[in-house]
Amino acid sequence: MAISNGIARFAYGLVLPAMREDLQWTYATAGLLNTVNAVGYMLGALAGYAGLRAVSPARAFRIGTVIVVVSLLATPVLKDFWHLAVMRSLTGFGSAWMFSCGAALVSKIYADHARIRGTATGLYFAGAGVGMILSGAFVPRWLEQMGSTAWVSAWYAIGIASALLAVLPLRVAASLKHDTSLSSEAGNKPIPIAPYLPCLVAYLLFGAGNNVYLTFLAAWIAERGEGWQVVTLAWCVLGFGICLSPLVWARALNTWPATRTLATCLLTTAVGVSISFLGGGALPTLNSALLYGLSLFIAPTSVTLLARSTRPASEWATYVALFTLMFSVGQSIGPWAAGVIADHVNLTAGMAFSVTIILLGAAMANAPSEAKIWAYRSGR
Asked: 262 with 367: CB under 8 angstroms?
Protein backbone atom coordinates (compact mmCIF):
# COMPACT_ATOMS: atom_id res chain seq x y z
CA MET A 1 0.00 0.00 0.00
CA ALA A 2 2.93 2.34 0.59
CA ILE A 3 3.84 1.81 -3.06
CA SER A 4 0.47 1.44 -4.78
CA ASN A 5 -1.30 4.34 -3.07
CA GLY A 6 0.95 6.36 -0.76
CA ILE A 7 3.61 6.88 -3.43
CA ALA A 8 2.43 5.77 -6.88
CA ARG A 9 -0.94 7.50 -6.79
CA PHE A 10 -0.96 10.17 -4.08
CA ALA A 11 2.54 11.60 -4.58
CA TYR A 12 1.30 13.07 -7.86
CA GLY A 13 -0.45 15.72 -5.78
CA LEU A 14 2.94 16.80 -4.39
CA VAL A 15 4.65 16.97 -7.79
CA LEU A 16 1.63 18.57 -9.46
CA PRO A 17 2.40 22.26 -8.68
CA ALA A 18 5.89 21.97 -10.20
CA MET A 19 4.58 20.09 -13.24
CA ARG A 20 1.87 22.72 -13.78
CA GLU A 21 4.44 25.51 -13.66
CA ASP A 22 7.04 23.83 -15.85
CA LEU A 23 4.60 22.42 -18.40
CA GLN A 24 2.16 25.36 -18.34
CA TRP A 25 -0.88 23.27 -17.47
CA THR A 26 -4.34 24.43 -16.38
CA TYR A 27 -6.02 22.83 -13.38
CA ALA A 28 -8.25 20.91 -15.77
CA THR A 29 -5.21 19.45 -17.56
CA ALA A 30 -3.61 18.54 -14.24
CA GLY A 31 -6.83 16.91 -13.10
CA LEU A 32 -7.10 15.11 -16.45
CA LEU A 33 -3.73 13.42 -15.94
CA ASN A 34 -4.95 12.10 -12.62
CA THR A 35 -8.17 11.04 -14.34
CA VAL A 36 -6.04 9.05 -16.79
CA ASN A 37 -4.40 7.38 -13.81
CA ALA A 38 -7.86 6.65 -12.42
CA VAL A 39 -9.00 5.20 -15.76
CA GLY A 40 -5.99 2.88 -15.70
CA TYR A 41 -6.98 1.97 -12.15
CA MET A 42 -10.51 1.30 -13.37
CA LEU A 43 -9.27 -0.94 -16.20
CA GLY A 44 -7.04 -2.78 -13.74
CA ALA A 45 -9.96 -3.30 -11.37
CA LEU A 46 -12.11 -4.49 -14.26
CA ALA A 47 -9.41 -6.91 -15.40
CA GLY A 48 -9.04 -8.12 -11.83
CA TYR A 49 -12.78 -8.60 -11.39
CA ALA A 50 -12.99 -10.58 -14.64
CA GLY A 51 -9.69 -12.43 -14.40
CA LEU A 52 -9.37 -13.50 -10.77
CA ARG A 53 -11.22 -16.71 -11.58
CA ALA A 54 -8.28 -17.71 -13.77
CA VAL A 55 -5.30 -16.06 -12.04
CA SER A 56 -4.52 -16.43 -8.34
CA PRO A 57 -4.58 -13.24 -6.23
CA ALA A 58 -0.95 -13.84 -5.22
CA ARG A 59 0.19 -13.92 -8.83
CA ALA A 60 -1.93 -10.91 -9.80
CA PHE A 61 -0.48 -8.99 -6.85
CA ARG A 62 3.07 -9.71 -7.98
CA ILE A 63 2.34 -8.75 -11.60
CA GLY A 64 0.68 -5.52 -10.47
CA THR A 65 3.65 -4.63 -8.29
CA VAL A 66 6.10 -5.02 -11.17
CA ILE A 67 3.89 -2.91 -13.47
CA VAL A 68 3.73 -0.10 -10.91
CA VAL A 69 7.46 0.01 -10.21
CA VAL A 70 8.43 -0.07 -13.90
CA SER A 71 5.90 2.60 -14.89
CA LEU A 72 7.02 4.91 -12.08
CA LEU A 73 10.64 4.64 -13.17
CA ALA A 74 9.61 5.37 -16.78
CA THR A 75 7.31 8.32 -15.97
CA PRO A 76 9.91 11.15 -16.14
CA VAL A 77 11.70 9.86 -19.24
CA LEU A 78 9.70 12.23 -21.50
CA LYS A 79 7.81 15.46 -20.78
CA ASP A 80 5.26 14.75 -23.50
CA PHE A 81 1.71 14.71 -22.12
CA TRP A 82 0.80 11.48 -23.88
CA HIS A 83 3.84 9.67 -22.52
CA LEU A 84 2.99 10.88 -19.02
CA ALA A 85 -0.62 9.82 -19.56
CA VAL A 86 0.35 6.30 -20.64
CA MET A 87 2.71 5.88 -17.68
CA ARG A 88 0.14 7.19 -15.21
CA SER A 89 -2.48 4.85 -16.65
CA LEU A 90 -0.12 1.86 -16.30
CA THR A 91 0.60 2.91 -12.73
CA GLY A 92 -3.13 2.97 -12.04
CA PHE A 93 -3.65 -0.41 -13.70
CA GLY A 94 -1.02 -2.13 -11.58
CA SER A 95 -2.11 -0.33 -8.42
CA ALA A 96 -5.61 -1.77 -8.71
CA TRP A 97 -4.22 -5.31 -8.76
CA MET A 98 -1.97 -4.61 -5.79
CA PHE A 99 -4.79 -2.95 -3.85
CA SER A 100 -7.56 -5.52 -4.25
CA CYS A 101 -5.45 -8.68 -4.34
CA GLY A 102 -3.31 -7.59 -1.40
CA ALA A 103 -6.45 -7.06 0.68
CA ALA A 104 -7.62 -10.60 -0.14
CA LEU A 105 -4.22 -12.03 0.78
CA VAL A 106 -4.28 -10.28 4.15
CA SER A 107 -7.79 -11.63 4.77
CA LYS A 108 -6.44 -15.11 4.03
CA ILE A 109 -3.42 -14.75 6.33
CA TYR A 110 -5.66 -13.64 9.23
CA ALA A 111 -8.64 -15.86 8.42
CA ASP A 112 -8.26 -17.77 11.69
CA HIS A 113 -7.74 -14.68 13.88
CA ALA A 114 -11.26 -13.33 14.27
CA ARG A 115 -10.43 -10.96 17.14
CA ILE A 116 -7.79 -9.02 15.23
CA ARG A 117 -8.48 -9.54 11.53
CA GLY A 118 -10.29 -6.19 11.31
CA THR A 119 -7.29 -4.38 12.78
CA ALA A 120 -4.93 -6.41 10.60
CA THR A 121 -6.86 -5.43 7.48
CA GLY A 122 -6.78 -1.81 8.62
CA LEU A 123 -3.01 -1.99 9.14
CA TYR A 124 -2.60 -3.29 5.60
CA PHE A 125 -4.40 -0.24 4.18
CA ALA A 126 -2.58 2.02 6.64
CA GLY A 127 0.62 1.20 4.79
CA ALA A 128 -0.37 3.99 2.41
CA GLY A 129 0.49 6.40 5.21
CA VAL A 130 4.08 5.18 5.21
CA GLY A 131 4.38 6.05 1.53
CA MET A 132 2.81 9.47 2.09
CA ILE A 133 5.19 10.29 4.92
CA LEU A 134 8.21 9.24 2.83
CA SER A 135 7.14 11.27 -0.19
CA GLY A 136 5.88 14.21 1.87
CA ALA A 137 9.16 14.50 3.76
CA PHE A 138 11.19 14.66 0.54
CA VAL A 139 9.29 16.00 -2.47
CA PRO A 140 8.09 19.51 -1.39
CA ARG A 141 11.48 20.60 -0.04
CA TRP A 142 13.30 19.15 -3.04
CA LEU A 143 11.08 21.04 -5.47
CA GLU A 144 11.36 24.25 -3.44
CA GLN A 145 15.16 24.09 -3.50
CA MET A 146 15.65 22.87 -7.06
CA GLY A 147 12.81 24.62 -8.89
CA SER A 148 9.85 23.47 -10.95
CA THR A 149 11.97 21.51 -13.45
CA ALA A 150 13.07 19.20 -10.63
CA TRP A 151 9.78 17.29 -10.90
CA VAL A 152 11.70 14.97 -13.25
CA SER A 153 14.25 13.97 -10.60
CA ALA A 154 11.49 13.76 -8.00
CA TRP A 155 9.73 11.12 -10.11
CA TYR A 156 12.98 9.15 -10.45
CA ALA A 157 13.38 9.21 -6.67
CA ILE A 158 9.78 8.04 -6.28
CA GLY A 159 10.43 5.13 -8.66
CA ILE A 160 13.61 4.04 -6.91
CA ALA A 161 11.96 4.18 -3.47
CA SER A 162 9.10 2.06 -4.78
CA ALA A 163 11.49 -0.54 -6.18
CA LEU A 164 13.18 -0.88 -2.80
CA LEU A 165 9.88 -1.12 -0.93
CA ALA A 166 8.62 -3.80 -3.33
CA VAL A 167 11.11 -6.46 -2.21
CA LEU A 168 9.32 -7.59 0.97
CA PRO A 169 5.71 -7.73 -0.33
CA LEU A 170 6.85 -9.63 -3.41
CA ARG A 171 8.50 -12.23 -1.16
CA VAL A 172 5.36 -12.57 0.98
CA ALA A 173 3.12 -12.94 -2.08
CA ALA A 174 5.51 -15.54 -3.55
CA SER A 175 5.14 -17.61 -0.38
CA LEU A 176 1.35 -17.75 -0.98
CA LYS A 177 1.44 -18.52 -4.70
CA HIS A 178 0.54 -22.19 -4.24
CA ASP A 179 -2.43 -21.43 -1.96
CA THR A 180 -5.60 -21.95 -4.01
CA SER A 181 -8.15 -21.26 -1.25
CA LEU A 182 -8.70 -17.73 -2.54
CA SER A 183 -9.23 -18.80 -6.14
CA SER A 184 -12.82 -18.55 -7.29
CA GLU A 185 -14.79 -21.77 -7.45
CA ALA A 186 -17.77 -20.11 -9.07
CA GLY A 187 -16.65 -20.63 -12.66
CA ASN A 188 -18.93 -18.62 -14.93
CA LYS A 189 -21.74 -18.45 -12.38
CA PRO A 190 -22.78 -14.80 -11.76
CA ILE A 191 -22.06 -13.48 -8.29
CA PRO A 192 -24.79 -11.49 -6.47
CA ILE A 193 -24.44 -7.73 -6.94
CA ALA A 194 -27.90 -6.28 -6.23
CA PRO A 195 -27.71 -6.67 -2.41
CA TYR A 196 -24.50 -4.66 -2.38
CA LEU A 197 -25.71 -1.88 -4.70
CA PRO A 198 -26.14 0.89 -2.05
CA CYS A 199 -22.64 0.27 -0.73
CA LEU A 200 -21.24 0.06 -4.26
CA VAL A 201 -22.77 3.45 -5.13
CA ALA A 202 -21.48 4.88 -1.85
CA TYR A 203 -18.00 3.67 -2.68
CA LEU A 204 -18.24 5.18 -6.18
CA LEU A 205 -19.16 8.56 -4.69
CA PHE A 206 -16.35 8.25 -2.17
CA GLY A 207 -13.93 7.63 -5.03
CA ALA A 208 -15.19 10.72 -6.87
CA GLY A 209 -14.81 12.94 -3.80
CA ASN A 210 -11.74 11.76 -1.94
CA ASN A 211 -9.25 11.93 -4.81
CA VAL A 212 -10.00 15.63 -5.31
CA TYR A 213 -8.55 16.46 -1.90
CA LEU A 214 -5.41 14.41 -2.48
CA THR A 215 -4.90 15.72 -6.01
CA PHE A 216 -5.19 19.43 -5.22
CA LEU A 217 -4.19 19.70 -1.53
CA ALA A 218 -0.62 20.85 -2.22
CA ALA A 219 -1.79 23.26 -4.93
CA TRP A 220 -4.51 24.61 -2.63
CA ILE A 221 -2.02 25.25 0.18
CA ALA A 222 0.30 27.04 -2.26
CA GLU A 223 -2.59 29.10 -3.66
CA ARG A 224 -3.39 30.32 -0.15
CA GLY A 225 0.17 31.64 0.16
CA GLU A 226 1.49 29.00 2.56
CA GLY A 227 4.99 27.65 1.98
CA TRP A 228 6.41 24.23 1.24
CA GLN A 229 6.81 23.68 4.98
CA VAL A 230 3.03 23.57 5.41
CA VAL A 231 2.75 21.21 2.42
CA THR A 232 5.32 18.88 3.98
CA LEU A 233 3.67 19.03 7.40
CA ALA A 234 0.19 18.46 5.99
CA TRP A 235 1.29 15.50 3.88
CA CYS A 236 3.19 13.90 6.76
CA VAL A 237 0.33 14.53 9.20
CA LEU A 238 -2.07 12.98 6.69
CA GLY A 239 0.22 9.96 6.35
CA PHE A 240 0.56 9.72 10.14
CA GLY A 241 -3.23 9.76 10.44
CA ILE A 242 -3.49 6.90 7.95
CA CYS A 243 -0.91 4.88 9.91
CA LEU A 244 -2.75 5.53 13.17
CA SER A 245 -6.26 4.92 11.79
CA PRO A 246 -6.48 1.12 12.40
CA LEU A 247 -5.82 1.71 16.10
CA VAL A 248 -8.31 4.59 16.37
CA TRP A 249 -10.96 2.57 14.53
CA ALA A 250 -10.03 -0.81 16.06
CA ARG A 251 -13.29 -1.24 18.00
CA ALA A 252 -15.39 -0.35 14.95
CA LEU A 253 -13.38 -2.59 12.63
CA ASN A 254 -13.57 -5.58 14.95
CA THR A 255 -17.12 -5.23 16.32
CA TRP A 256 -19.26 -2.90 14.19
CA PRO A 257 -21.19 -3.99 11.09
CA ALA A 258 -19.04 -3.14 8.08
CA THR A 259 -21.76 -0.96 6.54
CA ARG A 260 -22.00 1.21 9.67
CA THR A 261 -18.24 1.63 9.67
CA LEU A 262 -18.31 2.61 5.99
CA ALA A 263 -20.98 5.28 6.50
CA THR A 264 -19.26 6.69 9.60
CA CYS A 265 -15.82 6.93 8.03
CA LEU A 266 -17.22 8.67 4.92
CA LEU A 267 -18.92 11.22 7.14
CA THR A 268 -15.68 11.73 9.06
CA THR A 269 -13.75 12.16 5.80
CA ALA A 270 -16.15 14.90 4.66
CA VAL A 271 -15.77 16.69 8.00
CA GLY A 272 -12.00 16.46 7.62
CA VAL A 273 -12.08 18.24 4.26
CA SER A 274 -14.54 20.83 5.60
CA ILE A 275 -12.23 21.83 8.48
CA SER A 276 -9.79 23.26 5.94
CA PHE A 277 -12.42 25.87 5.02
CA LEU A 278 -12.26 27.45 8.49
CA GLY A 279 -9.61 29.97 7.48
CA GLY A 280 -6.03 30.49 6.46
CA GLY A 281 -2.96 29.41 8.35
CA ALA A 282 -1.42 26.07 9.07
CA LEU A 283 -3.67 24.96 11.97
CA PRO A 284 -6.92 24.34 10.04
CA THR A 285 -4.95 22.67 7.24
CA LEU A 286 -3.12 20.33 9.61
CA ASN A 287 -6.27 19.47 11.57
CA SER A 288 -8.02 18.76 8.27
CA ALA A 289 -5.18 16.53 7.09
CA LEU A 290 -5.13 14.59 10.37
CA LEU A 291 -8.86 13.87 10.46
CA TYR A 292 -8.88 13.06 6.74
CA GLY A 293 -5.97 10.65 7.17
CA LEU A 294 -7.60 8.98 10.18
CA SER A 295 -10.67 8.09 8.11
CA LEU A 296 -9.45 7.74 4.51
CA PHE A 297 -8.50 4.06 4.40
CA ILE A 298 -11.16 2.85 6.80
CA ALA A 299 -13.51 2.88 3.78
CA PRO A 300 -11.62 0.19 1.80
CA THR A 301 -11.07 -1.69 5.05
CA SER A 302 -14.83 -1.67 5.61
CA VAL A 303 -15.71 -3.01 2.16
CA THR A 304 -13.04 -5.71 2.51
CA LEU A 305 -14.59 -6.76 5.83
CA LEU A 306 -18.04 -6.64 4.23
CA ALA A 307 -16.88 -9.14 1.61
CA ARG A 308 -15.12 -11.17 4.30
CA SER A 309 -18.26 -11.37 6.47
CA THR A 310 -20.86 -12.06 3.78
CA ARG A 311 -19.10 -14.09 1.05
CA PRO A 312 -17.10 -17.34 0.94
CA ALA A 313 -13.29 -17.08 0.84
CA SER A 314 -13.21 -18.00 -2.85
CA GLU A 315 -15.09 -14.77 -3.66
CA TRP A 316 -13.23 -12.30 -1.44
CA ALA A 317 -10.77 -11.08 -4.06
CA THR A 318 -13.52 -10.83 -6.69
CA TYR A 319 -15.77 -8.73 -4.46
CA VAL A 320 -12.94 -6.44 -3.37
CA ALA A 321 -12.07 -6.03 -7.07
CA LEU A 322 -15.72 -5.16 -7.77
CA PHE A 323 -15.71 -2.44 -5.10
CA THR A 324 -12.35 -1.23 -6.38
CA LEU A 325 -13.86 -1.00 -9.87
CA MET A 326 -16.70 1.19 -8.59
CA PHE A 327 -14.24 3.35 -6.67
CA SER A 328 -12.13 3.80 -9.79
CA VAL A 329 -15.14 4.88 -11.86
CA GLY A 330 -15.79 7.62 -9.32
CA GLN A 331 -12.21 8.81 -9.10
CA SER A 332 -11.98 8.90 -12.90
CA ILE A 333 -14.57 11.69 -12.84
CA GLY A 334 -13.82 13.53 -9.60
CA PRO A 335 -10.42 15.24 -10.18
CA TRP A 336 -11.29 16.37 -13.70
CA ALA A 337 -14.68 17.75 -12.62
CA ALA A 338 -13.11 19.55 -9.66
CA GLY A 339 -10.39 20.93 -11.95
CA VAL A 340 -13.02 22.38 -14.29
CA ILE A 341 -14.81 23.95 -11.33
CA ALA A 342 -11.50 25.38 -10.07
CA ASP A 343 -10.73 26.92 -13.46
CA HIS A 344 -14.16 28.55 -13.72
CA VAL A 345 -14.68 29.51 -10.05
CA ASN A 346 -11.75 28.80 -7.74
CA LEU A 347 -9.98 25.86 -6.13
CA THR A 348 -12.00 26.23 -2.92
CA ALA A 349 -15.17 25.55 -4.91
CA GLY A 350 -13.53 22.43 -6.35
CA MET A 351 -12.75 21.22 -2.84
CA ALA A 352 -16.32 21.98 -1.70
CA PHE A 353 -17.50 19.76 -4.55
CA SER A 354 -15.59 16.85 -3.01
CA VAL A 355 -17.29 17.36 0.37
CA THR A 356 -20.75 17.24 -1.21
CA ILE A 357 -19.98 14.03 -3.10
CA ILE A 358 -18.56 12.26 -0.05
CA LEU A 359 -21.59 13.23 2.05
CA LEU A 360 -23.87 11.70 -0.59
CA GLY A 361 -21.76 8.55 -0.34
CA ALA A 362 -22.21 8.44 3.44
CA ALA A 363 -25.98 8.67 2.97
CA MET A 364 -25.94 5.81 0.46
CA ALA A 365 -23.88 3.60 2.76
CA ASN A 366 -26.64 3.95 5.34
CA ALA A 367 -29.33 2.85 2.87
CA PRO A 368 -31.00 -0.49 3.71
CA SER A 369 -29.63 -3.48 1.81
CA GLU A 370 -29.50 -7.23 2.09
CA ALA A 371 -25.73 -7.00 2.47
CA LYS A 372 -26.25 -4.75 5.49
CA ILE A 373 -28.58 -7.31 7.07
CA TRP A 374 -26.04 -10.08 6.43
CA ALA A 375 -23.32 -7.96 7.98
CA TYR A 376 -25.38 -7.42 11.13
CA ARG A 377 -26.26 -11.09 11.39
CA SER A 378 -22.61 -12.12 11.20
CA GLY A 379 -21.60 -9.64 13.87
CA ARG A 380 -19.49 -7.59 11.46
From this structure: no
